[in-house]
Specification:
two-stranded antiparallel sheet; about 45% helix; about 15% strand; about 50 residues; alpha+beta
Length: about 50
């Protein structure tokens, strides 16, 4: 798992799709997942909020 870097190119559609998955995981597990897959790339959720 890595940080989002300047070379990561995510579209708004990629982010929207990933956000639906995150929402579903939060509702199911009552917790933020430790990582999210965005357009096939695993992103550590800590790096999203920096």
């Amino acid at each position: 798992m890595g940080c989002v870097s300047a070379t990561s190119n995510f579209t708004t559609g990629d982010i929207a799709s990933a956000s639906v998955n995150v929402k579903n995981q939060i509702e199911t597990n009552n917790a933020l997942p430790s990582s999210v897959i965005i357009n096939g790339q695993t992103v550590n959720t800590d790096s999203i909020f920096i």
